[in-house]
Structure formats: structure tokens, C-alpha cells
Design goal:
- With 414 residues, this protein is an alpha/beta fold.
- The chain has helices spanning 12-23, 41-46, 72-83, 86-89, 98-111, 113-118, 132-141, 154-167, 182-194, 203-208, 259-266, 287-295, 304-313, 328-335, 348-351, 366-378, 382-395, 399-413, and strands spanning 2-6, 27-32, 67-69, 121-127, 144-148, 197-200, 219-221, 245-250, 273-278, 297-299, 316-319, 340-343, 359-361.
- It is globular and about 70 Å long.
């Protein structure tokens, strides 16, 4: 049996899953919008100044015979976004809103299922918000639906983040997860209901599914793999009056990521720490966000290789997320020998051991976050040993390990 695979933007976990599914001999076709391969039209475009972001859609060349693209709607979405043509990309009626682009791609998968079934395709592998039409069609044909939920379930998200709205009202504009329409939320529930197997990357994501009002297919927790470990040795020097502890945050600048807690935690420690923040603003109208960014080193965007370089130059990555399906920046930092402080609502509890290769704090607790930073200021020598342990952990769970577990589970589910 083989699979049709689909994803609209081809993020790291989607491309890695598809590659491992291919290696296992399970991939029939991969449906997406834009795909960059060496010496292709998109490859040449990605080298033009101002178009480098296209390079993020780069695939392993071995997948080229399997990838089927539908680029037009996605190109229009990108142009409308950059040009600020809100009428084309607004959620209610924009013909190039990401939901509309996803719907068209999903329709294409659904239309091709009958032909694919004749090629021994027995399953569809798709992701949240991209799957409802192909899953409906698959059910009528007796084809299995494999569902990848990259972030926690929406009902639990609303419950937990409503608490944040009440706790940090000035940050409410950054909590954009409440913007989904009733129609979209119903679609999320239908996708889950149609799934024959559900894949999540953390125990936290699995836990959020307990809020689903009904029976679900088996849930499989398979953490994403670590990137290739750096060969560059990391040397820690003791913080002093002239050398502050270098803290780094990478992610969306929203209270879902706990950025308000981070600013509050370092407020009284600014003489002892240097905070660098990499990420886009979730809102231009959040006064405390703008004030916090003005106090620290803010970099709106960096290429992935530059992010990894910055991680190597930092002492600690702080990732205080309050609702996270995984948190790829955690594995990226650990692979560079940079230990991480994160929360119990990320993949941290699945991939690290507290006080060994990183540190876990209670989500939403500014005091716990501040206390952990202070502990490192008191005894920064622990950073060197924790860095070595982080590297060891990263070496022992690769994307290939993730792929092997994933494909074994898919085979057992047929």
C-alpha cells in the first residue's frame, strides 16, 4: 500500500515526514503549491534579491518525481500579502486567503484519489486544515486517513489562552488563534472525526485532544527528530560585570509563546542578562510588546542558517510557550549545543530531562522562569555540562529515527 501526501507550505516537519515515507517505499505522490528543486525555475527565482523566501520550499531532489504542484493560488497569496491587498487575503471573503489556497489543493487530492487507488494507494496523509475534502472522498473509497496534528486541539487552545487574555489584557491583540470562523472550527473537528490514525509530536498535543467531544482514532505520539548536530565546539565563559548572560528567544511575538512572561522575568535582571529576540510581530498595536522590543535586541527575521549561528553564540534559548505542538527551535538549539529553558506545554517533557540537558518550568509562571534564569546566573558553570548533554540527546534521536517510527506505525495501521 502507498500514500498520497499533501501539505500547502512544506514546513520542516512535513518535508521530513514525506522524505521518510518515500524512503520506506510508501510514497505515491506529494501534493503541494510550490516546490524548489536544483536548477528548476523556482531555484533560479529564489536566488533573486527579494525572492529568497522561495528557497524555504526547497525539497530533497529524490522527491522531484513524486511532487505535484499547484503554484498559482499560492503565488497570488504571497503577492497580495506583500502588497498589503487585504481584500484578497482576508479570512471572510479573500479568494487568496490561506484557507482558500488549502481548499483548492485539498480538492485536487480528492479528485485524484480514484486514479490513485488503481495504483495501489491505500491511504491519504494530510495535516490540520488541509484535509477535509480528501478525507471525505477517501472514506467513500475505503482509503485510510492519516492525520497529522502539528499543534494542540483548538478547544483546549481557546480554554488556556482565554486565561492569558484575562491575565494579560494588553497582550490580547497578539492572541490571533481566536480569529477562526465557526466553519473552520467545525472543519477541524470533522477532519479529526474522519481520521483513522492521528499523529502528534508531543504528549502535550495528545493531552489537548481529551477536550474533543467524541471518540477519536488511535493517537500516536512521535517526537520530531533533531537536526544535524554541530561540529563546532561551544565554549562557555563565566558571566561577569562586563559579560552578561546571553539569552535568546526565537518565535512568533505573541503571548501564546509566553513573550510577556519573558519580558517580565528579565525586567529586574537586565544588568546581568542580554536578551536577543528573533521573530515577527503578531500585532502592531500591542504597546507592551513594542516597549519590550525597544529595550532588547530585536531581529524581525533571519534565515535558518543565521538562526543556528546565533544559537551557537548564545548561552541559553528561552522558549516559554504556553501552547505548542512541538517547538522546533528547541531541537535546533540543542543540536547546536545551546541548552533550552522551556515549559511543560511544549515537546520539552518528551525530548529533554530537567536539570540534565535542559530545564522545564511551569507554563505561564513568570516566577518559575525568572528563578531558573537566576539559578544560571548563580552557577553558570552548569551551562557547559548541560550543553554537552544537549548534544548527546540530539545525536540520539534524528529525523531518520522519527521517520522509522512514523512509517512503522503507518504500516501497522493499514
Amino acid at each position: 500500500m502507498k500514500l498520497l501526501f499533501s501539505h500547502i507550505t512544506n514546513n520542516t516537519n512535513a518535508k521530513s515526514a514525506a522524505l521518510e515515507i518515500y524512503k520506506a517505499g510508501l510514497l505515491d505522490e506529494y501534493y503541494t503549491t510550490i516546490a524548489v528543486f536544483p536548477n528548476s525555475y523556482w531555484d533560479y527565482l529564489s536566488k533573486i534579491k527579494g525572492l529568497s523566501e522561495i528557497g524555504r520550499r526547497r525539497f530533497d531532489p529524490v522527491l522531484e518525481p513524486y511532487v505535484k504542484t499547484s503554484p498559482l493560488s499560492e503565488i497570488c497569496r504571497q503577492i497580495a500579502t506583500k502588497a498589503g491587498i487585504s481584500s484578497l487575503i482576508n479570512q471572510d471573503s479573500g479568494i487568496f486567503h490561506i484557507d482558500e489556497v488549502s481548499r483548492r489543493l485539498d480538492q485536487k487530492v480528492a479528485r485524484n484519489l480514484v486514479k490513485a487507488q488503481k495504483r495501489n494507494v491505500g491511504g491519504v496523509y494530510s495535516f490540520e486544515d488541509f484535509a477535509v475534502q480528501s478525507f471525505r472522498r477517501a472514506k467513500t473509497l475505503g482509503v485510510k486517513n492519516f492525520y497529522d496534528l502539528p499543534i494542540g486541539y483548538w478547544r483546549e487552545s481557546h480554554r488556556l489562552l482565554t486565561i492569558e487574555q484575562e491575565k494579560w489584557p494588553e497582550w490580547a491583540s497578539t492572541l490571533t488563534g481566536f480569529n477562526d470562523s465557526e466553519k473552520k472550527l467545525k472543519q477541524k473537528d470533522e477532519e479529526l472525526q474522519l481520521a483513522d490514525a492521528i499523529f502528534v509530536a508531543s504528549s502535550f498535543t495528545a493531552k489537548t485532544l481529551k477536550s474533543y467531544p467524541g471518540q477519536l482514532a488511535p493517537i500516536h505520539i512521535i517526537p520530531y527528530g533533531f537536526p544535524t548536530v554541530t561540529k563546532k565546539k561551544k565554549n562557555y565563559t563565566q558571566p561577569s560585570k562586563t559579560r552578561r548572560l546571553k539569552l535568546l528567544f526565537v518565535g512568533g511575538l505573541t503571548q501564546r509563546k509566553g513573550i510577556a512572561n519573558l519580558f517580565a522575568a528579565v525586567e529586574t535582571l537586565e544588568k546581568h542578562v542580554e536578551l536577543t529576540i528573533v521573530g515577527y510581530k503578531a500585532s502592531e498595536n500591542c504597546k507592551p510588546l513594542n516597549e519590550g522590543l525597544a529595550k532588547h535586541n530585536w531581529i524581525p527575521t533571519l534565515s535558518n542558517d543565521k538562526v543556528l549561528e546565533l544559537m551557537r553564540e548564545s548561552d541559553v534559548l528561552i522558549f516559554p510557550s504556553l501552547f505548542e505542538g512541538f517547538g522546533l527551535v528547541i531541537t535546533e538549539a540543542m543540536s547546536q549545543g545551546t541548552p533550552v529553558i522551556t515549559t511543560d506545554r511544549t515537546a520539552g517533557p518528551d525530548i529533554m530531562t530537567h536539570n540534565k540537558d535542559g530545564w522545564l518550568v511551569e507554563a505561564g509562571s513568570t516566577e518559575a522562569l525568572k528563578e531558573q534564569i537566576e539559578n544560571l546566573l548563580i552557577d553558570s558553570k552548569i551551562l557547559s555540562e548541560t550543553s554537552k548533554e544537549a548534544i548527546y540527546t540530539a545525536e540520539n534521536w534524528t529525523w531518520e529515527d522519527y521517520g522509522q517510527r512514523l512509517t512503522e506505525t503507518i504500516n501497522k495501521s493499514f
